[in-house]
C-alpha cells in the first residue's frame, strides 16, 4: 500500500523537506503548493496580465494557485497542513477545511500555542502533530504497522 500526501501550509521553514527526507524508503509520493513566495503571489498577473489594484492582483494569483491546490488535495490520501509562527495562514485553514469536506485523512502540524485558535481545525483532523518527525512516524505506522524505535 502506498500513500499520496499533500503538504499544505506555511512556506517559511523547512518542515516539508524534513518530512520528505524522513520518509525516505517509505512508499509515499508527496505534492505541495508552489513554495516560491514571489512566484505564488505573482503567477496570476504574470500569466493573465497586470492589475491596477492589489486586491485583483492577489485574487488572480489565488485563483491560479487554487487549480494546483484543489488537484493536490483531491488526489491525496493524506493531507498535512502546517500552521507556523510567522504569519496567520488563512489559506492553510481553508485547505484543511477543503480536505475535511472531501473526507481526506488530515494531519495538522502546529505549535501548542495555536491549540485554542485552531480547535475546530484540530477537531476535524485525525492527528495533531507538533514536529515534522511525528508526521513521518504516523506515515511509517500507517504503511508498515511499526512503532518508533
Automatic annotation (TrEMBL):
Pfam families: Nuc_deoxyri_tr3 (PF11071)
Domain of life: Bacteria
InterPro entries registered for this protein in UniProt: YtoQ_family_protein (IPR019884)
Protein name listed in UniProt: YtoQ family protein
Organism this protein belongs to: Salipiger bermudensis (strain DSM 26914 / JCM 13377 / KCTC 12554 / HTCC2601)
Lineage: Bacteria, Pseudomonadati, Pseudomonadota, Alphaproteobacteria, Rhodobacterales
